């Protein structure tokens, strides 16, 4: 640990609590419905407060005060923008988009808090359907510390809701007088059956007390009956471990019977008996908020009974919610409702059974703007006395609509049937009606807002303004009485009469543009386009949506080769339902010729010199293989981007053959122009005469190693610049008569294929020995960036001294003083210094220090929170090796505002600026100050990491085969500075790619980042 560093104080021993920036290329924005000042896990409201104590809600503070320790919610501010889901027409893709977007947002914003909770050993559950964490048995001190994370919006207590208990119950016997319940007849569901619409193909779900699977009116419609498994069809949050549908209360069975039940032997009880059902048990005697959130999340992506294999494609189309909290405007579940709607799920809510309290008696969530809530009326057509009245949130009219809810006959556990009353009984009539409507009008499926509008527009108005509102939309009845037949007829009147399919023109070939032409619709429409691959409308195969292919023209890429393409146009016009129509498939997309040019050889073509094969201009994303050749013959093993000619290659013609391949293209092979391999050149430093060159003394030669190593080495001693006969050994005894002359030595390197290299030492004056020649001593910290000093000792007689510092025996250019600041290039090497002494009449003498090893820089930062400054962590650029961890770092101001930051795995780089107050990180490992030259620049890039161009990564042209993970996108960015600015101003550019891509490092970039793609240099 850096001994000069002051660590910032923390009272939460568990971990560093940080704010977290989003992953690059992920944009977030506030979703609809309109956020409100209130906050609760499960709502879409609120933003982070600057003071952690201000984030502790008054309700949470009271619970902490009363209990000391308690379960509580951490709700996070980040609200991902899900609006793009509206344009995704394929059910599976739409659900996957919503789940992935929510999951990414939760992972990024919750990372800091989760790290703290993990380190402290606190039990917790993270949710993504609502961006929140349920913390178990925590303290106020802990909650306040966690709230210091700027991503945390609020700390809230846990709560309980309840099922809307029936107003009355009575057992009844089957009646032969009626073929359907009055509720079915009242909303004209039986008329929809007569038209052939029973809800077939639609899946409804009950978030309730469970469902009795074995009930004869429900067993056939259970989706698990058809699949032979409870996986993806049943979730029990209230009674963990229950792997088969059950209902210990009866409420969930009764509501499900109203939605999809068959008959009791004589009377039809279900509005949509052709639909299938699944269920989530979020309630027992009460409905804990954690059970409800877990259930709401499961409904977005059902799992196996063991909780694995989440699959958004198996989510329901409709969710009935006959539960709530009496006479409150609590925004609980609001962001879950928004997520359901984004995923195309229609949710129905009971409005409450507190009508006896008069106006403003609606309960939450039904009272919220985001909810579509239902009031109850009787078989006589009168509003039920118990049916809660509006207005709701911010004066919005509640309920939204009314449906039969008094003495409703439906199924109960044990195989029986009972009449129950409540808005709980009214809501499933609407859920069943939506199933019928979506069966009858497929263009409405997933369009929640338009479906609401049609239900509202078709409802029969009832004038009752006792609690406010208008004759046709009031706080007693809402829009009026539900009529599903009228809704169907209204939808039909809003449908286009002529919707001819688009036609695709052009040749189905990679790189050749295709054009979609749409014949005129009646009435005239505006069109949106979505191209797909491997779609077959005739067989109901949706294929795969092509990201970004949303214009009337599309140019097939390599990924499309061997597939067929279609285009779906969605026509819109004022007053009409959007209608998607898909073209016939194209012919199978054919490959095309790859763009290819002749490669070139970069470097000096001579023995021992490293060469590179530059591919030059090819189709972007082309992968290459290499074969180096001499005189046209392949060199065994020479199949890399680089090649070093051998001595045996001298004088021969060298070429490189490059073969390029890319999915969807016909490969190509090109060969470079031939170049003759020249003689290699040795790099040789100047040798030194070692020892005191006094008359009669023996001196030796010390020569730096040559690059490359030579086959033979010879020496030649000289006096006054002339060769001494026979003096060819590594040492020489100086004759006694040569005082005042100059002794020197040369070294000659020879090898096959190389030009002979001779280098001579400087001359040393022969004279009397110095009486004292001390061994110099190196002092200082032997780390990169530190300064070393030499203590030459005392020479006798006094001498004029010069200095030369060496690294691994080779002189360091410019390092000729008594001090030397260690450069990054010398990391891991041996440093010595040679002191040369001169004096009149004395032999010019060299003496060398002992070697010291250079270690990594002194300035390091372990994970944590550190001040930036001269007496702590210096302002500089730092490098960390995070491995597979998601490293998160931030620059922080004195006011604890985040100035910049980043998240990612692999190598990470951050610059702490002199104006920063502090720097904090987690899961990054140790940060090491960067000095140029500490590593050899690489030509390949792992899937994740950040690199300094020209120092850690060579500049040039690189190619990737696309994302490492199939079906994912990968990210890359060119970086101007490593400051992680939230505005992204520190970037030159950034891009997401999902296919093979070629890039060239721009001169304006200092760094390169990649996430999810491997890259290698090709030019």
Automatic annotation (TrEMBL):
<feature type="region of interest" description="Disordered">
    <location>
        <begin position="31"/>
        <end position="52"/>
    </location>
</feature>
<feature type="active site" description="Charge relay system">
    <location>
        <position position="424"/>
    </location>
</feature>
<keyword id="KW-0720">Serine protease</keyword>
<keyword id="KW-0645">Protease</keyword>
<protein>
    <submittedName>
        <fullName>Serine protease, subtilisin family</fullName>
    </submittedName>
</protein>
<dbReference type="InterPro" id="IPR015500">
    <property type="entry name" value="Peptidase_S8_subtilisin-rel"/>
</dbReference>
<dbReference type="InterPro" id="IPR023828">
    <property type="entry name" value="Peptidase_S8_Ser-AS"/>
</dbReference>
<keyword id="KW-0732">Signal</keyword>
<comment type="similarity">
    <text>Belongs to the peptidase S8 family.</text>
</comment>
<dbReference type="InterPro" id="IPR050131">
    <property type="entry name" value="Peptidase_S8_subtilisin-like"/>
</dbReference>
<dbReference type="Pfam" id="PF00082">
    <property type="entry name" value="Peptidase_S8"/>
</dbReference>
<feature type="active site" description="Charge relay system">
    <location>
        <position position="251"/>
    </location>
</feature>
<dbReference type="GO" id="GO:0006508">
    <property type="term" value="P:proteolysis"/>
</dbReference>
<feature type="domain" description="Peptidase S8/S53">
    <location>
        <begin position="199"/>
        <end position="459"/>
    </location>
</feature>
<feature type="signal peptide">
    <location>
        <begin position="1"/>
        <end position="29"/>
    </location>
</feature>
<dbReference type="GO" id="GO:0004252">
    <property type="term" value="F:serine-type endopeptidase activity"/>
</dbReference>
<feature type="active site" description="Charge relay system">
    <location>
        <position position="208"/>
    </location>
</feature>
<dbReference type="InterPro" id="IPR036852">
    <property type="entry name" value="Peptidase_S8/S53_dom_sf"/>
</dbReference>
<dbReference type="InterPro" id="IPR000209">
    <property type="entry name" value="Peptidase_S8/S53_dom"/>
</dbReference>
<keyword id="KW-0378">Hydrolase</keyword>
């Amino acid at each position: 640990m850096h001994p000069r560093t002051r660590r910032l104080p923390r009272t939460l021993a568990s971990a560093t609590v940080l704010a977290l920036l989003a992953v690059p290329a992920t944009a977030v924005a506030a979703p609809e419905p309109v956020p409100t000042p209130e906050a609760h896990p499960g709502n879409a409201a609120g933003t982070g407060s600057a003071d952690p104590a201000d984030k502790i809600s008054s309700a949470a503070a009271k619970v902490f005060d009363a209990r000391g320790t308690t379960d509580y919610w951490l709700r996070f501010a980040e609200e991902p923008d899900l609006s793009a889901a509206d344009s995704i027409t394929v059910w599976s893709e739409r659900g996957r988009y919503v789940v992935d977007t929510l999951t990414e947002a939760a992972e990024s914003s919750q990372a800091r808090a989760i790290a703290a909770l993990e380190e402290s050993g606190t039990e917790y559950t993270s949710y993504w359907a609502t961006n929140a964490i349920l913390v178990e048995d925590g303290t106020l001190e802990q909650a306040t510390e966690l709230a210091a994370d700027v991503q945390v919006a609020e700390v809230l207590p846990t709560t309980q809701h309840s099922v809307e208990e029936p107003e009355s119950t009575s057992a009844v016997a089957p009646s032969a007088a009626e073929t359907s319940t009055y509720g079915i007849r009242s909303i004209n569901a039986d008329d929809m059956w007569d038209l052939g619409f029973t809800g077939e193909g639609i899946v409804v779900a009950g978030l309730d007390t469970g469902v009795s699977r074995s009930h004869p009116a429900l067993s056939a419609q259970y989706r698990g009956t058809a699949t032979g498994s409870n996986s993806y069809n049943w979730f029990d949050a209230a009674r963990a471990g229950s792997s088969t549908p059950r209902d210990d209360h009866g409420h969930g069975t009764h509501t499900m019977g109203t939605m999809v039940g068959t008959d009791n032997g004589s009377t039809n009880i279900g509005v949509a008996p052709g639909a299938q059902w699944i269920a989530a048990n979020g309630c027992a005697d009460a409905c804990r908020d954690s059970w409800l959130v877990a259930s709401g999340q499961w409904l977005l992506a059902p799992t196996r009974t063991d909780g694995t294999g989440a699959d958004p494609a198996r989510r329901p189309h409709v969710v009935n919610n006959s539960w709530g909290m009496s006479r409150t405007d609590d925004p609980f579940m609001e962001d879950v409702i928004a997520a359901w709607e984004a995923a195309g799920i229609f949710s129905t809510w009971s409005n409450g059974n507190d009508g006896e309290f008069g106006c403003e008696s609606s309960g939450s969530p039904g009272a919220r703007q985001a909810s579509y809530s239902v009031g109850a009326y009787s078989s006589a057509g009168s509003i039920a006395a118990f049916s809660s009245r509006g207005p709701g949130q911010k004066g919005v009219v509640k309920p939204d609509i009314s449906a039969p809810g008094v003495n409703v006959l439906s199924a109960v556990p044990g195989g029986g049937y009972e009449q129950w009353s409540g808005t709980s009984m009214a809501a499933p009539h609407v859920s069943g009606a939506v199933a019928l409507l979506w069966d009858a009008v497929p263009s409405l499926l997933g369009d929640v807002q338009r479906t609401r509008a049609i239900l509202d527009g078709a409802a029969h108005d009832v004038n009752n303004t006792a609690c406010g509102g208008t004759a046709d939309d009031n706080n007693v009845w809402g829009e009026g009485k539900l009529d599903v037949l009228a809704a169907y007829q209204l939808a039909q009147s809003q449908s286009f009469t002529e919707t001819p399919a688009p036609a695709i023109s052009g040749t189905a070939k990679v790189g050749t543009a295709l054009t979609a032409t749409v014949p005129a619709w009646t009435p005239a429409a505006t069109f949106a386009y979505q191209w797909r691959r491997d779609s077959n409308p005739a067989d109901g195969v949706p294929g795969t949506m092509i990201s970004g292919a949303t214009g009337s023209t599309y140019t097939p890429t390599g990924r499309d080769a061997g597939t067929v393409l279609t285009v779906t146009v969605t026509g819109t016009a004022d007053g009409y339902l959007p209608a998607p129509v898909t073209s016939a498939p194209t012919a199978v997309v054919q490959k095309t010729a790859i763009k290819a040019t002749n490669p070139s050889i970069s470097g000096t073509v001579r023995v021992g010199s490293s060469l590179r094969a530059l591919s030059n201009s090819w189709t972007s994303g082309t992968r290459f293989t290499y074969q180096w050749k001499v005189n046209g013959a392949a060199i065994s093993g020479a199949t890399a981007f680089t090649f070093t000619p051998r001595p045996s290659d001298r004088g021969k013609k060298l070429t490189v053959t490059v073969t390029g391949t890319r999915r969807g293209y016909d490969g190509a092979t090109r060969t470079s122009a031939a170049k003759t391999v020249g003689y290699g050149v040795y790099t040789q430093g100047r040798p030194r005469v070692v020892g005191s060159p006094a008359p009669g003394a023996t001196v030796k030669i010390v020569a730096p190693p040559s690059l490359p190593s030579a086959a033979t080495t010879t020496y030649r001693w000289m006096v006054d610049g002339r060769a001494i006969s026979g003096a060819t050994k590594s040492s020489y005894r100086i004759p006694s008569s040569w005082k005042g002359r100059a002794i020197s030595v040369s070294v000659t390197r020879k090898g096959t294929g190389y030009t002979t290299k001779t280098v001579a030492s400087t001359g040393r004056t022969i004279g009397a020995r110095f009486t004292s020649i001390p061994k110099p001593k190196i002092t200082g910290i032997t780390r990169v960036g530190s300064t070393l000093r030499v203590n030459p000792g005392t020479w006798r007689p006094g001498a004029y001294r010069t200095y030369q510092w060496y690294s691994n025996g080779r002189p360091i250019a410019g390092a000729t003083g008594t001090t030397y600041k260690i450069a990054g290039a010398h990391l891991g090497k041996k440093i010595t210094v040679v002191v040369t002494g001169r004096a009149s009449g004395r032999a010019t003498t060299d003496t060398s220090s002992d070697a010291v090893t250079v270690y990594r820089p002194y300035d390091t930062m372990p994970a944590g929170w550190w001040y930036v400054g001269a007496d702590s962590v210096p302002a500089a650029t730092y490098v960390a090796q995070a491995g597979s961890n998601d490293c998160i770092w931030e620059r922080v101001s004195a006011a604890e505002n985040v100035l910049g930051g980043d998240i990612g795995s692999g190598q990470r780089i951050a610059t702490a600026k002199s104006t920063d107050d502090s720097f904090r990180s987690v899961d990054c490992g140790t940060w090491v100050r960067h000095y140029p030259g500490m590593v050899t620049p690489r030509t390949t890039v792992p899937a994740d990491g950040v690199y300094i161009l020209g120092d850690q990564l060579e500049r040039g042209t690189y190619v990737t085969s696309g994302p490492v993970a199939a079906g994912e996108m990968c990210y890359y960015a060119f970086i101007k500075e490593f400051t992680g600015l939230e505005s992204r101003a520190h970037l030159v550019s950034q891009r997401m790619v999902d296919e093979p891509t070629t890039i060239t490092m721009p001169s304006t970039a200092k760094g390169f980042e990649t996430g999810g793609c491997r890259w290698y240099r090709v030019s």
